[in-house]
Amino acid sequence: MALFKSENPKTEMPFDENGIVPAHVAIIMDGNGRWAKKKLMPRVYGHKEGMNTVKRIAIEASGLDVKVLTLYAFSTENWKRPTDEVNFLMGLPIDFFDVFMPELMQNNIKVTTIGWIDQLPEKTLKVVQNAIEKTKDNTGLILNFALNYGSRAEILQATKMIARDVATGKLSEDEITDEVFSGYLFTSVLGEWQDPDLLIRTSGEIRLSNFLLWQAAYSEMYFTEEFWPDFSTTSLRAALAEYQHRNRRFGGI
Ligand SMILES: Cc1cc(N2CCCCCC2)n2ncc(-c3ccc(F)cc3)c2n1
Fold this sequence. Notes:
Blueprint: E1 5-6, E2 24-28, H1 32-38, H2 43-63, E3 68-75, H3 83-106, E4 110-114, H4 122-134, E5 142-149, H5 151-167, H6 178-182, E6 198-201, E7 220-224, H7 233-244
The structure holds the ligand Cc1cc(N2CCCCCC2)n2ncc(-c3ccc(F)cc3)c2n1.
Keywords: Magnesium, Metal-binding, Transferase
InterPro entries: UPP_synth-like, UPP_synth-like_CS, UPP_synth-like_sf
Binding site for substrate: 31-35, 43, 47, 75-77, 79, 81, 201, 207-209
């Protein structure tokens, strides 16, 4: 399968403002530590700058009429990182809302999460829950953070819930369809937009890293060498331009 790797997003085909826009864009925001290392700064400097990129890209996506932007902020595997790095990362949602909540409200952005947020530190959880509550009536872009999320664990959880519902007679075996299975995943709350149309990964890595494995079955994939802190509004428009020039078949001919 030919994977697209944009060498220089600024020189690809132009984005058509009147063309098709992916309803759901998912991003693996990779390369923050390497970006900082290139600048002879600590890794956490890259994470902090990456947080600023989150706000910039969310506002841009909101203006381009993207419906859902799912961002892989913290994976179930990230707990293995050094304690001081994990502690710093757990502070970023707090910093994010401290600084950007007014702008999120001005742009009618709704915050949601996927993942086991109940396992986050109390202070982080409270700030995230408060942001979800405060933005719940907003009708613009859904800014969906994958926090303490892992796709295989999500699929296993869904499988166990389905097994329980079959055992209790709530569900019969022949009622288990793609659509019913999807309803047991965290992303079911996204309704018609639960499957990403476009999945972007920065920093040159070409892997899914346990992200939206079920949901991304038919997603267009876009890989760019740029590190996440360098990912600009121009970079996003270049990815959307590439999406506009793909012919999606959903398994058909
Ligand atoms: C753990 C973590 C790491 C994190 N990074 C910055 C982006 C690059 C990836 C790693 C570091 N960012 N950036 C924003 C958030 C966030 C999460 C939830 C929320 F409701 C509001 C903001 C965030 N969370």
